[in-house]
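Researcher: Re-running this chain for the archive, since the previous output was lost when a drive failed. Same request as before.
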Amino acid sequence: MKTISLKEDMPLVHEALSQLERELAIAKQQRHRFVKLIHGYGSSGAGGEIRIAVQRRLRAMSDRGDIRGCIFGEDWTKSDEQTWALIKTYPDLKQDRDLGKRNLGISIVLL
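Model: Regenerated C-alpha cells:
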C-alpha cells in the first residue's frame, strides 16, 4: 500500500490539504487502489487541526465521488465492516502494521 505523509515539515492546514489533493491525484494516475495517509492526530498540543481538516475533506471527496471511500484510523480494524470487506478482497492488507491499532493519525483512502 502506498503511504503518503502529510505531516512532514509541519505544514499549515491549507498546505496539507493542497498536498492531499496533489498526492491523491498522483496515486490515481499510478493506478493505486488505496493509500494510507499519515496526517497525525494532534499529540503535539496543536489540537489536530490537520487531522480534522483531512477527515472533513475525505468525507466531501467521497460524497462527490472523487474517491471510493475512506476508513479513518480509529476504524481500521478487522471488526469494522468496511475494513473487513477490503481485507477480504486484498488479503495482503492484513500485514499492515496499523491494522487494529486504532491509530488516530492515519486514514486509508480507497481510490
